[in-house]
Design goal:
This protein has 14 helices and 11 strands. With about 350 residues, it is α/β, with parallel strands linked by helices. The strands form 3 sheets. It has a 7-stranded mixed β-sheet with strand order 5-4-3-6-7-11-10, sandwiched between helices. Strands 1-2 form a two-stranded antiparallel sheet. A two-stranded parallel sheet has the order 8-9. Strand 1 (about 70-75) and strand 2 form a beta hairpin. Helix 2 (about 20-30) packs across helix 7 (about 100-110) and helix 9 crosses helix 11 (about 195-205). The structure holds S-adenosylmethionine (SAM).
């Protein structure tokens, strides 16, 4: 995409406009359950067409495209799955990203309603549409999205002297568990809605660090946040809420931080004066328009101003040298003064 922006020629415009084709091809392969159905063997087109109950003509063109981007390998007699697909797109693999793939697929149809949403200025569904089933599936998707980046982040952030850690809006607790693993004396709490915490409990049982994780069910906007903490981790939550709501959350966090305690914010941030870069931060704002009442993406400068106003006066940007695979590997820290 980067070679095509800014768009200054019709050729670039056409490339950007037609960029929908490859995602659509991937999503059709997922909808047909193609990668799982191929298991570990080689398939001729007639054999695979029979198994998937699709036309040979359609499958021939689909497989050729999937092979051309490296998801399948073409052999003399047919196709088999490439190592990447085997690892991430097949259910039998421990690295399978199942619920995250489902979330991506759902977004195809959701994004198709963008024009209506822009006209109305209202999200696709109201908050009432949130059911425990939806929350559980979304929470698994969050785990599948962050299982690698959580390890990368926790490995690169030193929590020297910290004993207590709150993963606020922590969903599956993937980040809390990663920080616990890398900090053997740390105790952590994950706060989220009850259905999300069910997923966190399941994951904690699979990890030896899980015995040091506790749970707080509730809505942190409407209810008090209990406990006192050395570190609060606020990851991928900032963009769900308005500036005023985030300021309110920061003020609540200030009250539960120990003197010298840190709020660490992970999100996608705009970081040029006009608020146009990076493109990903602007694209992500569209997701918030589709799904939230007041969410958006924000500039580092704006969020630092809210931290200051909330009394977390010592703020700084933390660049993670090795990146995280999530956003640009950049975090924002707000710290409560030792005398605060
Ligand atoms: C986008 S997910 C991020 C999950 C995780 N922090 C991560 O970075 O992968 C946002 C999470 O915040 C939770 N959340 C949002 N608003 C909340 C609120 N007011 N009270 C409790 N949890 C909330 C959601 O239920 C969801 O699990």
């Amino acid at each position: 995409m980067n070679a095509t922006i800014p768009i200054t020629s019709f050729k670039q415009f056409r490339e950007v406009a037609y960029a929908f084709r490859l995602p659509r091809i991937l999503f059709s392969a997922l909808e047909l359950n193609l990668f799982n159905s191929m298991e570990s063997r080689n398939w001729t087109i007639p054999q695979l067409a029979k198994r998937l109950k699709v036309s040979q003509r359609g499958l021939t063109i689909l497989c050729r495209n999937l092979a051309s981007v490296g998801l399948l390998v073409k052999s003399q007699s047919g196709y088999h799955v490439a190592p990447f697909s085997k690892r991430y797109l097949q259910k039998v693999s421990p690295d399978f990203r199942g619920d995250y793939l489902t979330l991506m697929l759902r977004q195809w149809s959701e994004w198709s309603h963008l024009t209506e949403v822009i006209r109305a200025g209202q999200p696709l569904e109201s908050r009432e549409a949130e059911t425990p089933e939806y929350r559980r599936s979304f929470t698994w998707a969050m785990h599948h999205r962050s299982m690698q980046s959580a390890q990368d982040v926790a490995q690169q952030i030193a929590l020297k002297g910290a004993h207590s850690f709150l993963d606020l809006g922590g969903g599956p607790g993937t980040y809390a568990l990663a920080f616990l693993k890398h900090n053997p004396t740390l105790q952590a709490t994950v706060m989220d809605r009850p259905a999300a915490l069910e997923v966190a409990r399941t994951l904690a049982q699979l990890s030896s660090a899980g015995t040091r994780l506790t749970y707080q069910a509730g809505d942190f906007l409407k209810e008090p946040i209990s406990g006192t903490y050395d570190v609060v981790w606020y990851s991928n939550v900032l963009h769900i809420y308005s500036p005023a709501e985030n300021l309110n959350v920061f003020k609540k966090i200030k009250r539960i931080l120990r003197p010298g305690g840190r709020l660490l914010i992970q999100d996608t941030f705009l970081h040029d004066p006009k608020g146009l870069r990076p493109l990903e931060a602007n694209l992500f704002a569209v997701s918030m328009l589709l799904h939230t009442d007041r969410g958006n993406t924000y500039s580092l400068q704006d969020v630092r101003a809210w931290l200051q106003e909330a009394g977390l006066t010592r703020s700084r940007i933390i660049h993670l040298k090795k990146g995280t695979g999530d956003w640009e590997g950049q975090l924002l820290e707000g710290r409560l003064p030792l005398s605060g």
